Amino acid sequence: MPDYVLPFEKPILELEQKLIELRGFSEEQEIDMGSEVGKIEQKIAETKQKIYSGMSAWQKVQMARHPQRPYTRDYIDLLTRDFRELRGDRLYRDDRAIIGGTATFRGRSVMILGTQKGRDTKSNLECNFGCPYPEGYRKALRLMKLANKFGMPILSLIDTPGAYPGLESEERHVAEAIAVNLRESFEFRVPFLSIVIGEGGSGGALGIGVSNRILMLEHSYYSVISPEGCAAILWKDRAYADRAAENLRLTAKDLTELGIVDEVIPEPLGGAHLDPQRTATFMGDALEKHLKDLDALTVEERIQDRYEKFRKIGVFHDSGPELVEA
Question: What average pLDDT does this structure show over 183-198?
Answer without folding.
Answer: 97
